[in-house]
Amino acid sequence: MGSVERPCRDLTRVLVANRGEIAVRLIATCKKLGIRALAVYVVDDADSPHVRAADESFLLEGHGSQGYLSTEEIVRICQRNGVQGVLPGYGFLSENSDFAAALHAAGILFIGPSATTLRDFGLKDRARELAVRAKVPVVPGTPILAGFDQARRAAIEIGYPVMVKATAGGGGMGLQVCRHVDELRRAVDVVKSRGQALFQNDGFFIEKFVESGRHIEAQVFGNGQGDVLFFGERECSVQRRHQKVIEEAPSPYVLKNPSLRKRLESASCALAKSVKYKSAGTIEYLVDDVSGEFYFLEVNTRLQVEHGITELCYDIDLVELMLLQAEEELRGRGGLSAGAMSSFSREGPKGHAIEVRVYAENPAKNYQPAPGLFQNVHFPTGQGIRTDTWIGTGSFVSSLFDPLLAKVLVHSQNRDHAVEKMVATLTQTKLQGPPTNLDFLIQVLNCGDFVTGRTTTDLLDTRFEYKASAIEILEPGTATTVQDWPGRVGVPNGVPTAGPMDSLSFRAANILVGNEEGVEGLEITLLGPKIKFHAGAVIALCGAPFSFKINGRPASLWASHAIPANTEIQIGQTPVGARAYLGIRGGLPNVATYLGSKSTTPSLEWGGYQGRRLLAGDFLFIDSGVATSAPPRPFELDRSAIPEFSHEWQIAALPGPWFSNEFLTTKGQEHLYTATYKVSYNSSRTGIRLEGPPPTWGRRDGGEGGSHPSNMVGFGCTVGSVSFTGDSGIILPVDGPNQTGFIVTQVVGGSDLWKLGQLRPGDSLTFVPATWAQTLLQEQKLGEFVSSIRSQVKSGVARKTEEALIAGLLCPQRPTKYGDGILATVQGEKDRPRVVLRQAGERAISCLFGPGTFDLGIRARIQHVANTIRNDPPLGLGKHPVAENCSLLVHFDPHQTTQDTVVQTILALNKAVPDVRASRIPSRIIHLPGVFDAKECQETNERYMLSQRSKAAYLPDSIDFIRRSNGLKTREQVKESYFEIPLLINAVGWMMGLPIYVQVDPRRRLVVPKTNPSRTFTKAGCLGTGGGTSSIYPNDSPGGYQLWGATIPGICWDTYGQKPGFTPERPWLFEAFDQVIFHSVNRAEFDAAINAFKAGRYHIQIEQSDFDMAAYNALIEQTREEVARMKKVQEECTERELALERVLFAEWKADVDRAAEAKEKEKKCRASMVPDAALVEVPATMISSVWKVEVSVGDIIPANRTVVVLEAMKMEIAVHAPSGAAEYKVANISREPGERVETGDVLVLLQKLP
């Protein structure tokens, strides 16, 4: 844009009274001129870019769009903060004469036209009068009319079609086209009521509607003294619902009829001069496409949305001109001088510019707004490309505001080149999130009429048809998510692998439709979705035997289907297994990649579509070109090639890292491979919980890890780890954590991980022992099976599959010998600790250094080995080993190296570690605000007491429990052990960059037992301690640490890396050996820090430093005796607390058992009752718990009404009244929320009504 390139000297503080892209654009020009820009925002906009871009920002009291309309509040903010002028932009208060007058009365400039001009041109009838007076042609029409009768007579006189127009407002909101009297009656009512509601003015008038017209507007700028500049015309004829979509400068019509520009200039300047117009303004005209006559429509007394294309063609910055005009007004000169104005005069446009408005709206659904999260945003840059926007990756578009996302502008030497450049620019634009009109815009730009310049206002309504390439979710099912394979493998710091739970079925579905095996598709759990395909596609459904219909007709699974546009598919339920996968040829291209994968992790709100399960109304784009270009022939696998699922599973599992006599008795080890476990209803993608007897433990407790023998000092773990949390078993699947504080006894072999995806509540499973070599052989067989599917699809001939191959996949062979989990042991010597290498599946080795207790010297040695691997990974080793406490988890690729080779490599790396006792380790010092005994902790504990356990030694006050467990006298001593002192980050991982830390000074290290059972919910930002380590809860999540404070929620992980201190490639804050210091602040300061962080305006204080191991070891020696005495006190006090805890736990358990017994008696009593033939039983459809009861006794309900919502596998499952009668009366409710139910248990009794 052109610029005078001189800063304003007197105008130094300007408030921008707007939001979104225009606020960002206005602030940029203020800064260019050296003006301090102030912003206002509502709480819904706290993280909007204009808030961050401004030099100062002020919170408005209101919500949504209404918050930006408070004249009194904005004027008050201006007065209190030395504001000299207000830039209103467009919309909101930009044409509000009362606002301009209020600013003037307060001695503040309204940077725009005068209040009188705003008032006159704001009323369309008055504007029409002024146009007639200036001899500007107007459309045949009327003055203000009183009502329908006058309108009817006027319409007859003018001749249909006519437009009913509100005198107040603009932008097409108060405009109705009528072709006969019935439409006229409705239009008058609508325009009057809308005008009254929006502008407190129900005035209206009628004008002739020009059928084949163009919307062409003139850009003017006046100095308020009668001098006016003309900056050419823009054409804005391409509109939907009277809202502009595409604008051009110059007008393609004027290009063919060049004499029109002079006529437009003459009329426009005459009108502007007649009122001594000041600042920027636009005069809109309707041009008859046939006759070339033009008619005045209205004056927009503000900056237009599309002003940018004029700036590109005339090399001018209109906002800069407005600010220069305002400065001259501030100096008392009335405005820019005639000489200054002439320096900005231009002969005519140079080249051609096009602007498109990009909206978060769905053109296939009548342009309905489409709010949501944009997971990836990219606008191309380059010569002749400009984008005015407010969104970026991670922006959430609210339904509270206008859905305009961006204005994309291009400039080139002529129109043809400009059109080509715009199509190329939009094609390269990435807006991955909710639906936008991006594809719609490309189709309009490519349509014949637009290319030839036949852009009349009826183009979109009469000569263009949008063809959506998308799927629409009509019914979502219980849990339908986007997944790809293999997911996020090898991403560090608490990033779950994600991907399909059953990768075998997923890969098969992709092969059947002609995709690569890993292309994103839909994972369907328990109850499937109903989906409409707006474009043709090739699909396949593989997995459990769900019912499957295409346009109401049964369809085969494990088969490909070519379907036409507007096809609906319905995926129902499955009697066995849990999941199926819908492959779509070409995948889902508009789903964003996050950390290398499109997979959804719903528990963390990552990846996939909107970071969640799909919902009704979701609209996902497909690539119909790929989907329908040379599709594979319809193909169905032979039944012999389809795995048959059952309710009984055999799953191959290798002995895990702690499968040894130190942790499990011989009997306990045998038990793990002979016991039958039942899958709990409380299972999910983050953890498959098992019901069954625990193993026999080989030790009394967990040492530093905790009081139960299953407790461990935290360590890294892999997908498929079989763990015991207390006496309860759990398998950690694809969304599970990568670190744990509980024992891992076995690890499911990679060849059997797919089975975890088909486990459903109530299924039974047995672990079959496996060796490393046997697991790889089994994996090879799995690969052969997948290859056989690929070859069959390629040949188009279905073949029978060997029965032995399928049987081998489902029933792994039991080896004669499998050993324990120990791979190698090297005894310690001098300064080198003992090292034990342990098996952690076929792709990882867990290395335990020293006696299994935390020692910072050992931790430094482990970090040295980890850094060596990370910086220069030996052949086959993963780049990101997991280091925590006294352990190191090393990943490797068994197709590149062997387990034995990795063992020797690790031992060699350990041997090469130099003496670390005097080393200096890079260590940033991170300062964070914190609140001791925060309300977040109190609320979390209260929720735990209400929903899980009512009495415990650590309830109701966990801080007092910490105090007592450590023999401290006051709560202040607890606080002093966590605040204003350095805490060393020992490990980062688990989930979302969660840090595990300890006090650097051993005299400050507190120990405390964890909760039992663990909490199902902990508020994000809570600070807690368990055993001898502490952590920050990065998100709302389960946990068992005793809580003592809170810091900023979300500080561990910024998902899209947009906040200060984070990047998209490094969304985590902490690294191992960082130090964190919590500074105690009051609640008001803390809340302000939270708000600033949410808005992206909080700057984390970080110092670059080193951790001095020599100084640390000196401290250890100096305090050794004092620390030994402290530990003795801690052990004694903790034992007393544990004794009390055992008593309280027994009391609580007895209360629970009594309540359960009473419920069981009631259940048996109900079961013994003679069934009433008049009553209809509504049974539970699966093993689950009752989440909600949606009816009450006595309610009259229709058929198919939801009566109860069950919860299983972290999903809600609705149970409906049957369809056997029109209505029912609820006679009895047999189950309460929280009760566990088996398949077939009666939930509700209904009485049929006649």
Automatic annotation (TrEMBL):
Pfam family, one: Biotin_carb_N
Domain of life of the native organism: Eukaryota
Region Disordered, residue ranges: 688-708
N-terminal signal peptide: none
The keyword Transferase appears for this protein: no
Domain called Lipoyl-binding: residue spans: 1173-1247
SUPFAM superfamilies: Cyclophilin-like, Glutathione synthetase ATP-binding domain-like, PH0987 N-terminal domain-like, PreATP-grasp domain, Rudiment single hybrid motif, Single hybrid motif
Coiled-coil residues: 1109-1136
Segments forming domain Biotin carboxylation: 10-465
GO molecular function list: ATP binding; hydrolase activity; ligase activity; metal ion binding
Domain ATP-grasp: 128-327
Swiss-Prot/TrEMBL cofactor(s): biotin
SMART domains xrefs: AHS1, AHS2, Biotin_carb_C
Keywords: ATP-binding, Biotin, Coiled coil, Hydrolase, Ligase, Nucleotide-binding
Protein name in the entry: Urea carboxylase
Organism of provenance: Cladophialophora immunda
